[in-house]
Design brief:
289 residues, alpha/beta, TIM Barrel, DNA polymerase, domain 1, 7-stranded mixed beta sheet, 45% helix
């Protein structure tokens, strides 16, 4: 499949290795029509990416990936076409960013008790200006020589319920969906296969979920086909992306190795247009009351 739109990308604003400007340049060289900047719990990389693209390709879709939890499962919700200046969204993200610093501190202390001698400063060196996340901790551990790769760190220490795992601020999926939609965005379930519980879809849809990430590096063609059919039957839009973070960080995916073909991206954009039209119709209806 010829990918024209990669709708799941991380930058240095969260835990990626490339800056938003570098991502735009790389996507341009690959000939992509559009990319979505979907950093974890932050919108800090969106403006610089949009400025770098200006009026040329690739189109920059302002997005986000919000980490949530339900029934002892991590669920990630993607937001597309969000208003990244929305005050309610910014207020929630401030809480999430502060919780990331607290979580990083607790993680370091827990790892120290397990014999892994890293400091919070080591983690912050990898985070740079971004709020620290588990991938920054993983990089610090790899740098110290404790484990060979970030993926090994997640497998052995920092993955969900592993010895070094620390609970985070528990945002609920319905809260993530609500804040994305109130900020004018489209809400989709990221890499649904990883949850191993498709039955959650019914609940998520009742809270306003609109889409499914059909294409993702952790979902094989058979699984992608399953979610494509599920999305069709439930009238959800489909999306997909590489979940690109950069090379050598435990994520083997390369930019544009997953995403939407031209016809699929056309359908994706039409969902956005339909949402805008429905919003205008509602506004006109209210004004007549």
């Amino acid at each position: 499949m010829n990918v024209v739109a990669d709708l799941h990308i991380h930058t240095t604003a969260s835990d990626g290795l490339l800056s938003p400007v570098e991502i735009v340049k790389k996507a341009g060289k690959l000939g992509l029509s559009a990319i979505a900047i979907t950093d974890h719990d932050t919108i800090d990389g969106i403006s610089s990416a949009m400025n770098a693209s200006e009026n040329t390709l690739p189109e920059i879709i302002p997005g986000i990936e919000l980490s949530t939890e339900i029934d002892d499962r991590e669920i990630h919700i993607l937001g597309f076409y969000i208003d990244h200046t929305d005050s309610d969204l910014i207020a929630l993200l401030k809480i999430l960013q502060e919780s990331r610093f607290s979580r990083a501190e607790k993680t370091v202390k827990k790892l120290n008790s397990l014999g892994y001698l890293i400091s919070l400063g080591d983690v912050l060196d990898f985070a740079g200006k971004a709020a620290p996340g588990r991938l920054h901790v993983a990089r610090a551990l790899v740098e110290k020589g404790y484990l060979p790769s970030a993926q090994a760190v997640f497998n052995d220490l920092l993955g969900y319920r592993m010895p070094g795992y620390v609970e985070r601020y528990k945002l609920k999926p319905q809260e993530a969906i609500a804040i994305i939609r109130s900020a004018g965005g489209l809400a989709a379930w990221a890499h649904p296969y990883l949850s191993r519980k498709d039955s959650l879809l019914t609940e998520f849809i009742s809270h306003g979920l609109q889409g499914l990430e059909v294409y993702h590096p952790d979902q094989n063609p058979s699984q992608s086909g399953h979610y494509r059919q599920l999305a069709k039957s439930l009238r959800l839009f489909i999306c997909g992306g590489s979940d690109f973070h950069g090379s050598g960080v435990g994520h083997t995916s390369t930019l544009a190795n997953c995403g939407l073909a031209a016809s699929e991206f056309k359908d994706f954009r039409e969902n956005r247009l339909q949402m805008l039209q429905n919003s205008e119709i509602m506004k006109k209806g209210v004004s007549k009351l």
